[in-house]
Amino acid sequence: MNLIDYANILIRRGWIMLLLGLIAAGAAFFFSRTLDPVYRATQKVRIEPSRTDFGLTQAAKQLLNSHVAYLDSSLRAAEVIDRLQLDMLPAQLRADVRFAPNLDSLVIQIDAESKDPGQAARIAAEWAQLLVLYRNDENQQARQEDRIDARLQDNPVTVLARPNLRINALVGFIAGVFVGAIIVFVLEYLESAIVRRREDVESHAGLPVLAAVPPAD
Known about the structure:
5 strands; Bacterial polysaccharide co-polymerase-like; 2 domains; 217 residues
């Protein structure tokens, strides 16, 4: 088959792909609207060495992963639950919180998800405060010039995490078009042996058609 044949197929049966794509996109859109929204609050904590020399900066970088390990524990989750009076278990809370260290900027990002945007922000901020308090305690045992502080970079930023109506509808449309393409392929395969047009005769016989006899009335 050449490009003209594929173009003819799209002209004749492309509506199947388009229709299934629109149906799937609409279904994905309306199904997403029935889901409860989940919000994500992001709190960033800066790790600041008291001086900018290479040695202390490297020490701060090495501490980032250690701080993440300190935060990502059931003990810290239990502290957050106790401080905020949350009705959940530490394991449940930990499943909704993520920690990401950035070695280049010396920042630890805390992402907390919840169906309540205010609660997500409070969880992220409170978890960050645990790191601030931890660094304060650690600094009490270090000299002033060797201290490494933890400071909140800003207030938590809360966004809608899911569902994303546009993305879901787009994925549904693509999936529908893909299924439609499979259906078109199957239909073309089943009808490949049926001769309906002069082009079909020329394609199968390899000879040009000089004339066609019209069907009898």
